[in-house]
Amino acid sequence: MIVCLILLFSLFVFAFASAHVADRKGEGYATFFFVGLFLGAFGLAIVAALPDRRIQRSRNLAEGLLACKQLLDAGAITAEDFGQMQADFAVEMEDQRRKSIVPKLVVGIGAVVIVAIIGAAFGLPFFISLF
Question: Who contacts 72 (Cβ-Cβ below 8 Å, separation ≥6)?
């Protein structure tokens, strides 16, 4: 019984660690939470081997903004158009940041519910057996 609880706890640790590393690399938090939950240390190793997508996204946004600046310098667009494009890039970056918050909340609440259910199923009989 204790071994099962320790194993379950360690799987949740790997799940949250995998999700955290994946989120820091620009990958899906919820997806890699379940990868870590089901694969344990192997899931964490998989996430660690992934390339960092945030760098590529930032590079793409920077290249897009640079292209807009070149259009402004060439006279193809007005300063007002360039200002609007800058605002659009800022909104896109903020949207990317906000998207990562919702899966964390959903996974966190789901994990608490799962632990509560397992604790109710295993915890009460375990504590009764101690007495």
Answer: 78, 79, 81, 82
